[in-house]
């Protein structure tokens, strides 16, 4: 059985993560790239869809394969860089590590 990572956070985090996965997949693995690249692209797009479904079902959390952690980390870094969101990066990194994030933490920039 595959190990999963439970992600829990407010809607802004949920939307940002799903967008980050899709945008990174499009940029890093464009249509027509290598077979390995296409497999990674599909995995990231599928993960975004799974997360959206999970978040929609529970309103707050969703599960994703732990195997995607490295891709998720790069995707959120890419997303925050592309959209000039340095304050969101710390929260996104905590979020994808499995640490629950609430709206108050998001507003404070996830500073300790």
Which key phrases capture this entry?
mainly alpha; two-stranded antiparallel sheet
Mean pLDDT: 91
Radius of gyration: 14 Å
| Beta strand % | 5-15%
Largest sheet: 2 strands, antiparallel
Strand order of the largest sheet: 1-2
Overall shape: it is globular
**What distance separates the N and C termini?**
35 Å
In short:
The chain is mainly alpha-helical and 112 residues long.
Walk me through the structure.
A two-stranded antiparallel ribbon has the order 1-2. The chain contains five helices and two strands. It has one domain. The mean pLDDT is 91. Helix 1 (11-28) packs antiparallel against helix 2 (35-58) and helix 1 crosses helix 3 (69-82). It has 112 residues and is mainly alpha-helical.
Layout of strands and helices, then pairs:
Layout: E1 4-8, H1 11-28, H2 35-58, E2 61-65, H3 69-82, H4 86-96, H5 103-107
Antiparallel strand pairs: 1-2
């Amino acid at each position: 059985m595959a190990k999963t990572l439970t992600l829990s956070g407010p809607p802004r985090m949920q939307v940002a993560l799903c967008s980050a996965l899709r945008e990174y997949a499009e940029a890093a693995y464009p249509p027509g790239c290598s077979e390995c690249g296409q497999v990674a692209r599909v995995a990231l797009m599928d993960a975004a869809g799974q997360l959206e479904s999970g978040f929609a079902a529970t309103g707050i959390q969703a599960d994703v394969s732990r195997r995607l952690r490295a891709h998720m980390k790069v995707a959120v870094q890419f997303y925050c860089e592309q959209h000039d969101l340095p304050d969101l990066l710390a929260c996104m990194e905590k979020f994808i590590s499995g640490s629950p994030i609430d709206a108050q933490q998001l507003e404070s920039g996830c500073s300790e």
